Amino acid sequence: MKKIFIAILILAASVAEAQVVTPQPSPAASVSTVVGLTDVKVDYSRPRTKGRKIFGEGADFIVPFGKIWRTGANNGTKITFSDDVTVEGIKVAKGEYLIFTWPGATEWTIALYKDIKLGGDTDSYDKANEVANFKVKPTKQTEKVDMFTVNITDIADNNKTGKVELAWENTSVKFAIGVDYDAKVMKSIETSTKVAPGNYANAAIYYAENGKDLNQALVWINEAIKINPKAFWYIHQKAKIQAKLGDVKGARETANESIRLAKENGNDFGYVKLNEDFLKTLK
Questions:
Q1: Domain end among 178, 206, 237
Q2: Are residues 190 and 171 part of one domain?
Q3: 136 has which bridge partners?
Q4: How many whole angstroms separate alpha carbon 96 and alpha carbon 151?
Q5: Axis-axis angle for helices 200-209, 182-195 (nearest 10)
């Protein structure tokens, strides 16, 4: 009898642990990218419009103007930064934050919140846990977005800024993220040029393009050329550094040498024209 009782308990426990898994009405999603050298990731849930009115004035709307919104469904929306960043110009330390919003017709208030455990519990929101609070302008979507969607977009050519977009129904709002990768690059240069001479060229180009010590850049590009004397692409970079140093005669001679080697190579990868265009800028 005792064995039968134990077997019944085990069966009951296994039944209690079993769960029926079905698709979620607001499925989980994530989006991530690298801005500069910083990983930016957003985890969120995606409610659907289901024919409802989403943003507007009054209780008839799912997200009434002026009311706090968990920004998505379920546990809200979490954003993660692998490095310190700025968000709309506000310094934000690396880490995880919830995104809360207060939508409006002409302006949204957005806050980053450091207590991740709050989840989507807007009733327990504590302003003391805000790390950033700012306002942005909404725009109208030309095409309806049926499911709430987060994008990381508008990454600048210099990789120093990007934007997070929140889009649902016919509304889109974006907020800017700024990153600073200079310290990481400088540390990488210091380490890599000691152990891998082939990295001298990358270090030289970074220095030349970011307003750093041009004499040091010239030393490094010369080291790279010593390793690969026929690298006409390195020689082109040397000409540009010489020009920035005011050595127009040397820059002209170096650019012509790059042209000669590029033509000898058979495939110049566009460097003949690059050098010719560069020579036209020298006065």
A1: 178
A2: no
A3: 108
A4: 17
A5: 150
Domain end (from 140, 163, 178): 178
pLDDT in tens, 120-148: 999 999 999 999 999 999 999 989 999 99
Using DSSP, state whether 69 is helix, strand or coil: strand
pTM over 0.70: no
Q: Which domain holds residue 41?
A: 24-178
What are the residues whose beta carbons fall under 8 Å from the beta carbon of 39, sequence distance 6 or more?
32, 80, 81, 82, 83
Strands (E), the chain: 28-35, 38-45, 55-56, 63-64, 77-81, 85-87, 90-92, 95-102, 108-113, 130-136, 139-153, 161-178
Any domain includes 200: yes
Q: 60 and 200: one domain?
A: no
Confidence of residue 189 (pLDDT cuts 50, 70, 90): confident
40 and 124 part of one domain:
yes
Cα dihedral value 179, 182, 183, 187, nearest 10? 140
Question: Are 203 and 99 within one domain?
Answer: no
Q: Is residue 17 part of a domain?
A: no
Contact 150, 163 (CB under 8 A): no
Geometric angle at alpha carbon 213, from 212 and 216, rounded to 5°: 135
The DSSP bridge partners found for residue 162 are: 177
Pull the structure tokens for residue 93.
């330390």
Query: Residue 104 class from Cβ within 10 Å (0-12 exposed, 13-18 middle, 19+ buried)?
Result: middle
Statement: residue 281 has pLDDT above 60:
yes
CA distances in angstroms from 157 to 136, 171, 201, 207, 229, listed in the order given: 23, 26, 21, 17, 31
